[in-house]
């Protein structure tokens, strides 16, 4: 096992402040190095954090596309410069190389604590399985969505998002901070146990696979004309089927889910996704058998 350094990013979205607090609370000298693994802490988007907004020019967590050639851009985009800086500093070929990136986020949706992974990299599955095994966290697997790419953790050989909610933007909540602290403080022990064969991965992983997103009902001008239905609000991770209510519009008309497949909505009413025209995303549940190859690849990091 050659995992020497884990990058812990908080404040990738500047108005998600609880992870920044958690990291500051955790980050004392004796905590920097444990089990032979060093944590590197960085605020993803420090200027947006100072201003209390999600981003300055563009969403940092969509700015890590490999083909982002910022020299060709007429105007510099702060987040693309910042993404390049982070990779130059802490990427696997950077000046302080980190093998794993953990990106800490909060959501205004009632998701509890969850893991978000992008694509099906074996190393990510291994790390997700470790965390699901320890904490029973649900896993949201984001893949095949051309409208949303360039996520931070994809720029590292292995990486996951930890997403905790519900909490308002720019609002400190000790319960939310505590959940981040628990994960940060036990992550290296779990990796160490795996290395020393003290734990095995579970036989199966439960994964919620991204299928698409649903916009709010809109009027002719394109303005939102409907609320998330009272039976749907805060019901993240709960299965719905054809005929279940999604929205209620100004006329009192209930907009129902019309698909044939059973789906599991997530990020219901996430405030930050309004600008992306997303009222909620939806997933299908998949059981994935854990493979020995996941551990082998993880150990070869
Ligand atoms: Zn975020």
Observed structural traits:
301 residues; Aminopeptidase; ten-stranded mixed β-sheet; three-stranded antiparallel β-sheet; 7 helices; globular; binds zinc ion
Write the layout of secondary structure elements.
Elements: E1 5-10, H1 18-26, H2 29-32, E2 33-34, E3 37-43, H3 46-51, H4 78-90, E4 100-106, E5 112-118, H5 122-135, E6 139-142, E7 158-165, H6 174-195, E8 204-214, E9 227-228, E10 245-248, E11 254-256, E12 264-266, E13 280-289, H7 292-299
Parallel strand pairs: 1-3, 1-4, 4-7, 5-6, 6-8
Antiparallel strand pairs: 2-3, 5-7, 8-13, 9-10, 10-11, 12-13
Helix pairs in contact: 1-6, 5-6, 5-7
Bound molecules: zinc ion.
Residues 12-13, 16, 105 line the site of zinc ion.
Verbal overview:
By secondary structure, the protein is of the alpha/beta class. It has one domain (5-207, 289-299): 3-Layer(aba) Sandwich (Aminopeptidase). It has 7 helices and 13 strands. It has helices spanning 18-26, 29-32, 46-51, 78-90, 122-135, 174-195, 292-299; strands at 5-10, 33-34, 37-43, 100-106, 112-118, 139-142, 158-165, 204-214, 227-228, 245-248, 254-256, 264-266, 280-289. The strands form 2 sheets. A 10-stranded mixed β-sheet has the order 2-3-1-4-7-5-6-8-13-12. Bound molecules: zinc ion. Zinc ion binds next to loops.
């Amino acid at each position: 096992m050659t995992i020497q350094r884990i990058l812990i990013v908080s404040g990738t979205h500047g108005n998600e402040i609880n992870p920044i607090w958690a990291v500051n609370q955790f980050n004392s000298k004796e905590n920097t190095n444990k089990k032979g693994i060093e944590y590197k802490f960085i605020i993803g988007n420090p200027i947006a954090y100072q201003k209390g907004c999600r981003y300055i020019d563009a969403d940092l967590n969509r700015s890590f596309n490999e083909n982002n050639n910022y020299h060709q851009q007429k105007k510099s985009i702060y987040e693309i410069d910042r993404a390049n800086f982070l990779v130059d500093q802490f990427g696997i070929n950077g000046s302080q190389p980190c093998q794993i990136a953990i990106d800490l986020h909060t959501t205004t949706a009632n998701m509890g604590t969850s893991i978000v992974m992008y694509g099906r990299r074996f190393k990510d599955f291994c790390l997700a399985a470790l965390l699901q095994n320890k904490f029973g966290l649900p896993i949201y697997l984001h893949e095949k969505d051309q409208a949303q790419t360039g996520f931070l953790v994809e720029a590292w050989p292995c990486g996951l998002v930890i997403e905790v909610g519900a909490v308002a933007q720019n609002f400190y909540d000790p319960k939310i901070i505590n959940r981040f602290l628990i994960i940060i403080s036990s992550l290296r022990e779990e990796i160490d146990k795996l290395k020393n064969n003290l734990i095995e991965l579970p036989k199966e992983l439960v994964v919620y696979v991204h299928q698409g997103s649903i916009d709010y009902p809109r009027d002719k001008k394109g303005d939102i004309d409907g609320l998330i239905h009272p039976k749907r609000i805060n019901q993240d991770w709960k299965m719905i089927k054809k005929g279940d209510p999604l929205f209620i519009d100004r006329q009192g008309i209930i907009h129902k889910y019309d698909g044939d497949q059973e789906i599991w909505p997530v990020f219901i009413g996430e405030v930050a996704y309004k600008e992306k025209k997303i009222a909620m995303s939806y997933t299908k549940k998949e059981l994935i058998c854990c493979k020995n190859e996941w551990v082998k690849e993880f150990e070869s990091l």
